[in-house]
Structure formats: structure tokens, C-alpha cells
């Protein structure tokens, strides 16, 4: 299978070749011909499967006849609207639109919250064919009259499951009501819950269904491990694993924003360069943190689930669940950040005794046990060493855990030991 056989013109084939793509990913092979044929598509595809190119490339091909070098804004109405749940994902998708569309005179821009409206207003007034937006900020522009959506031909809902989780569906409904009824709609979601299927029925017309990975499964090139650990010693175990395995780029998930900030500060004090990225930080701060991480200037990026959406970091080798998520679906989203587009990755979960229920829920969803590894000195109930910096949990006033000198290496044990 090649991009040529999928029906893309020579210039787009050249663009993807320049990006180093030798062949279409499964979601691209399945979705591109359907989108080119004008079908509505309901696609189950996680981040990392190449889903962005799966909709952007055929959309560019469909817009080709409308591509115009004319200056007049009237010649550049919004024809494609791509809705994304977070700023990071919106920026990422907009970058892909620019990269893949470099051979065509089509205009695109991205609008999201957290930054001033005015520069966005100027871009919208000058005319754009492809608009990538987060729902809230788009509605702000609609209310101000800076954007008209009456000529939209294609609507894309990216990471629809996350839009649902974040409570954006009422906004999405408001936006959809402003679009022409005759349009093509593409719906991408990491998972297909019943709620997602109902929404798809509402927004899509006779959709073709693309489901490339099995429901709630993870990539083959991804290895998972869980480490049972005393809750108060997780940060120490994390430092130990980073040093032992010489990790250079680690995305760590915490459940709360304050937990993210606290952990990043602790890691920094222990000599592991770390930054936290979460919704409370300003957009320039988040962008800078992400760039430092991508460049390799910091080893650890600590993120909450919401802040992590849309982060596209190529070949990210390690993802760590500092805490298991309350919603097991988030486990799948999180570990989807590694093992992307063929690169191998490791997803590690630090699991304390009070997280047994979450672990059960995740393993039920995966329909598999996560392989368990043990670093004995960090197991619950081990005595603590006297030296070393206080862990963030201890500083936060929780009961200090017993600690012991750690000289052990990881070894495999059956998962049954951690509460399955
Ligand atoms: P996405 O799932 O859209 O977030 O894409 C994940 C990553 O895969 C991005 O870094 C893309 O540049 C890359 N990618 C997309 N399509 C291909 C392809 N056909 N071959 C290799 N890499 C790809």
C-alpha cells in the first residue's frame, strides 16, 4: 500500500515522502479513500496512529479545486472546521495542516483560548479556508461576528471522547447548529463508548466506520510494567528508575495540578530536570515547557490528563503513571503517548496499595494483566533510609513512610502480587 494508490495527487505524495512517511498507517489506509469519496467517517484511532494525516491529507485533496491565490478575504471563506478539545491538540493539528498543505495556496489558522483575541480576529478577517479551533474560543468569535461558518463543507471532531469528558458537547452542538446541514463530517475518537456512538448518530450521516485497533487495546510496540510501591515513596522510586534505566525523556502523569507542580519541584531538587504542564499555567508557559522537553533540555514533563491531550512528542520512550487515573480510559490515553508511529515505548505505573481498585479497573478494560516488577527497597512496608531529600508527599504533611537503603535491581514477578 502506498500513498499514491490511496488517490492523493503527486504534490501531497511528495510532501509525505519529505516527512519521511514510507507508507500509510492503517487508519490512513482505511480513512483516506472514504474521505476522498465524500463519506462521513466515524474513526476509532488513538493519538499516535497517524490519525491527523488521515483526515488532513484527503481534506486538502478535496479543497484543491478551491485553492486560490486571490487576496480578497471573500475568496477564502471557512470551508473546513476542525474542532479539538485542547489548545495543545489544536496547535498540533494546525501545524500538521500547514506541513501537509505546503504545496497548496490554502490558508489555515488556529484559534484557542488563553491568548488575546485580536491577532486571531485579524487572521480570521483576512480569510482562511481551514480553521482549527477549540469550541469555547470559536463561540467567542462567533458572538463577536469575526467568523462566519455558513460555507463550511467539512467538519472534523478530533478526540471527540475527550470533548465529551471535558463537557464541551453543548458547545459543539451550538457550533454544529451554525453549519450547513449538507456537509461532510469526520469524527475521531480514541475509544468508542456507547455515548460516543450516540453522538456520532447525532452528528454524522450514514458514516463509514473505521476501527483499526481492537477496542481498548494498545499498540504492540508498547511494553507495560507496574511497580508496587509505598505511596509515600513514589517520587523516590521514580528518581531511582530514571537513574537506573538512564531515561532521558519521560512524561509523568499525576492526578492533580498541585501534585504535578510539587513533583516537578521535588525532581528538580533531586537533580532531575523537570517541568510541570497543567491548565493553570499561561499558554506561553505551557508552550515553553513543551519546547524545553522536546529539545531535551528537561528530562521529565509532569502533566495532568487534561494538559496532556494533544501533546505530540515524537518517539517518546517513557510514560509514567505516578498515580493510576480515576477513569481507566485515561490509562489508554496516557500510554498512547509512547510507542507511537512504530517507535517502541515503555509505560510504567507506580501503584500503591490504595490504588488496587483503579488497577483492577484498568486491567479489566485492557482484558490483560500489566506485568509486575519489583524494586524491593520500595515495596510497601519497607523501612526507610535516613538520608535523602524529603519526598513531596512527606513535605505535604502525610505520614512519612518507612524507608530502607535501596540496593536492589528490578525483577519480574506475577501481577497477582499487586491485587489482581
Ligand atoms: P497522530 O496520530 O496524527 O498524532 O500522528 C502521530 C505521529 O505519526 C506524528 O508525529 C506523525 O508525524 C507521524 N506519522 C503520521 N503518519 C505517518 C506515516 N504514514 N508514517 C510514519 N509516521 C507517520
CATH architecture of the largest domain: 3-Layer(aba) Sandwich
Query: What gyration radius follows from the Cα positions, in whole Å?
Result: 23 Å
Strand percentage, roughly? 15-25%
Structural class: alpha/beta
Largest sheet: 7 strands, parallel
CATH topology of the largest domain: Rossmann fold
Q: Order of strands across the biggest sheet?
A: 3-4-2-5-6-1-7
- Taken together, the total number of domains comes to 2
Summed over residues and divided by their number, the pLDDT gives a mean of: 85
Outline: globular
Task: Give the proportion of residues in helices.
Answer: 25-40%
Annotated CATH homologous superfamily of the largest domain: P-loop containing nucleotide triphosphate hydrolases
Number of E-state strands: 15
What's the number of helices? 16
pLDDT < 50 stretches: 393-420
Distance between the amino and carboxyl termini: 42 Å
**Which cofactors or ions or other ligands sit in this model?**
adenosine monophosphate
| CATH class value of the largest domain | Alpha Beta
Short description:
The chain is an alpha/beta fold. It is 37% helix and 16% strand. It has two domains: 10-211, 3-Layer(aba) Sandwich (Rossmann fold), CATH 3.40.50.300; 222-418, Rossmann fold (3-Layer(aba) Sandwich).
Q: What this model shows, in words?
A:
The protein is of the alpha/beta class and 420 residues long. It folds into two domains: 10-211, 3-Layer(aba) Sandwich (Rossmann fold); 222-418, Rossmann fold (3-Layer(aba) Sandwich). The protein has helices at 10-18, 26-36, 51-63, 87-100, 118-126, 135-144, 160-165, 169-176, 194-203, 234-244, 257-269, 283-295, 305-308, 328-335, 356-366, 392-395, and strands at 41-44, 80-83, 108-111, 130-133, 154-157, 184-189, 208-211, 222-228, 250-253, 274-277, 300-303, 318-321, 345-351, 372-374, 411-413. Strands 3-4-2-5-6-1-7 form a seven-stranded parallel β-sheet, with helices on both faces. A six-stranded parallel β-sheet has the order 8-13-12-9-11-10, sandwiched between helices. Helix 12 links the parallel strand 10 and strand 11 (300-303). 47% of the residues are buried. Residues 393-420 have low confidence and may be disordered. The structure holds adenosine monophosphate (AMP). Adenosine monophosphate is lined by residues 21, 24-25, 28, 47-53, 312, 314, 340-341. Adenosine monophosphate binds at residues 21, 24-25, 28, 47-53, 312, 314, 340-341.
